[in-house]
Fold this protein.
Amino acid sequence: MALTLIERIQLVNDLDKNLAAINSVSGIRERIRLVNEIDRIVALLTGEGQAPAPVAPATPAPAPEPEPAPAEDPQTAEDRAFLQSVIDGKHPDLNKETVGERLTDCVERYDDGEHEAMLSLTETAVMAWQDHILELTDKYDEEE
């Protein structure tokens, strides 16, 4: 099943929330439930039936070259800077839900058939953000 960008963003948000919650739960049943949910989400994000073994962190793919625009409106310029900061792993709030909300806004803004370069940049940012959160699952596995 191919995930839409919106579905992928929601899953990464859910994964991030579960990772944050796992260290604060006291009951073993709740911890097991969270681990199972994390495994399910990782499997959906990676397209595999089970969570993958930890791998070395991936280097984010370079962003597609922006389409030349004589005069870029302020919203597009702001979105482009945001998306690039996510791709570069330099956005200060990578572990916060607001990143997912902002990525969702970008998908909705540019998925109109007229902004292919911005939609492509958004997709690259979603995948980079997903990779960042999946790396957190690898770090959690190493702590166990």
Observations:
- Confidence is low (pLDDT under 50) at residues 49-58.
- The two ends are 31 Å apart (CA to CA).
- Residues 1-144 form one domain.
- Helices lie at 5-22, 28-46, 74-87, 97-110, 116-143.
